[in-house]
Design a protein that fits this description.
The chain has 483 residues and is of the alpha/beta class. Helices cover 63% and strands 6% of the residues. A 5-stranded mixed beta sheet has the order 2-1-3-5-4.
């Protein structure tokens, strides 16, 4: 028996695709749960936990200040009420949607192509370190992935039945999923833009308004419901005169999706080759490439031309579509022997990537830093946090002291990232006049590029005593001079 026949025999013995999907989900679950509560919360995660702990009205107010819509926080609020707000409990909410997304990408691949394309894409998503990373963060990105997949899956199902009399529940389902998506993250609007565009393609193809109008009404209604939040976005942009995000290049995005450049080198041929096939004329293949265009290239161009607000995590949904195109190409390889060799390389690189990921650097060490300050500082001391938002979104999560004097600096940096300058440094005059015994300056994600805070403290008669480093955070201690 030849190698080709042996491999074909093994392949034919695996005929239960549902079982493979369940295995992929189980493996994905284990990978996402591993070390879940070990790492410190980042400032962004601590912000999400803090906002979710508010009542619904205050969640809306906090969301308006933060730009990100409130739906995630509403759900997260109920989750932490049930399970608590520990690192493990908080992040497990993201694990839930990360694992469910594995099944949804299978359904999408099955609907557009076939079961095996769905299975392969589910396996890739299951062990993707990019997907695992955001499944282990107490943030809204796996919910964004999940709802985007729900929307596109239901949308693709409806257009597959475009000439049938579908029950209205499908259109209402699409309406509510899209509302939830838009109110989870503003990047949901690029999925909606795609769905509008593809309706135009269908109208040109069929020259019949027919059932297309029902899909249009559903998408249009969800867009109208989102209009109030657009004003919140414009307000937030007006407050942030300076961009707070660096714009990555598209190669960096693909590298993040892949894990490293070795995996990207393996993936790129599978991502590109369908463009040169005659099958690109098939609606399903074009559907995915146009979807990538709207969810990656369109926001990238907007960020490049108008205002930089583009990050890999914002386009997490596009990673699943990226994997789906790769799965489609892989499944179309005729040689089972070639498939086996490619699969071996994929799993070897994935294994290396997971080792690097789990042994990688922790977030800033809030636990140790807070324990140090809780032990050292007294009620006669002053703690100055720069950036200001790290006081509420980090220190307050871990600290067990409520008698400490703490201020964010600059004051406005409690909400948005701001540089320390000649104007806002004057805010320190009042607290420094109160003759605190010791002053601790906590630098994390700060923008005091010229050490203006430290110099200002010395101007008021305080003397530098010591400083400590906590994995990305610096704490400077000053004592009052006897002179």
């Amino acid at each position: 028996m030849s190698n080709e026949e042996k491999i074909k025999k093994i392949s034919n013995s695996i005929n239960n695709t549902q079982l493979l999907v369940v295995i992929a989900m189980f493996v994905g679950f284990l990978l996402r749960m591993y070390n879940l509560g070990v790492w410190n919360l980042s400032s962004d995660e601590a912000f999400c936990v803090r906002v979710a702990g508010l009542n619904y009205i205050d969640i809306v107010k906090a969301s308006i200040d933060d730009v990100h819509p409130p739906f995630y926080y509403f759900l997260f609020h109920n989750w932490i009420n049930l399970f608590g707000n520990s690192e493990f409990a908080s992040r497990s909410f993201s694990v839930l949607f990360g694992v469910l997304s594995i099944y949804l990408v299978y359904l999408l691949g099955k609907t557009l192509f076939n079961k095996w394309t769905g299975v392969i894409s589910a396996i890739i998503l299951s062990i993707s370190t990019f997907a695992i990373d955001y499944s282990q963060k107490a943030r809204m990105y796996t919910l964004l992935l999940f709802l985007s997949l729900c929307s596109v899956y239901l949308y693709s199902y409806i257009i597959k039945k475009i000439n049938s009399n579908l029950d209205k529940k499908y259109y209402y389902g699409l309406l509510f999923i899209n509302i939830f998506l838009l109110y989870t993250h503003i990047y949901g609007m690029f999925v909606i833009m795609f769905e509008f565009f593809w309706l135009l393609v269908l109208f040109i193809k069929y020259r019949n308004w027919g059932n297309i109008k029902n899909i249009f009404y559903s998408i249009f209604a969800s867009s109208v419901v989102f209009i109030p939040w657009i004003f919140a976005i414009l307000r937030a942009k007006a407050e942030r005169s300076e961009p707070w995000l660096d714009l990555p290049n598209l190669l960096d995005i693909l590298e993040r999706f892949s894990g490293n450049y070795f995996m990207l080198a393996l993936f790129v041929p599978f991502f590109i080759t369908p463009i040169f096939w005659k099958k690109i004329r098939n609606t399903e293949v074009a559907f995915l490439y146009v979807l990538i265009f709207f969810t990656v290239l369109v926001p990238y161009l907007i960020s490049l031309i108008i205002y930089p607000a583009f990050q890999a995590r914002y386009v997490i949904f596009a990673s699943a579509i990226f994997y789906l195109i790769i799965a489609y190409s892989f499944n179309n390889i005729k040689s089972n022997f070639a498939k086996l060799n490619i699969a071996i390389w994929f799993f070897v690189i994935s294994f290396i990537l997971m080792g690097e990921y789990y042994n990688g650097p922790d977030n800033v060490d809030w636990r140790s830093a807070t324990a140090y300050l809780d032990k050292q500082a007294t009620s006669s001391d002053l703690l100055i946090f720069s950036a200001g938002y790290t006081l509420k979104n980090g220190f307050n999560y871990y600290s067990h002291r409520d008698d400490l004097n703490k201020i964010p600096f600059p004051k406005l940096s409690e909400r948005i990232s701001l540089p320390v300058d000649e104007k806002n440094i004057l805010e320190l005059d009042d607290p420094l006049n109160k003759n605190y015994k010791n002053i601790y300056v906590i630098y994390h994600e700060h923008r005091d590029y010229n050490d203006m805070i430290l110099k200002k403290i010395e101007d008021y008669g305080y003397v530098y005593d010591s400083d400590k480093e906590f994995n990305g955070m610096q704490i400077f201690e000053f004592v009052k001079s006897d002179d």
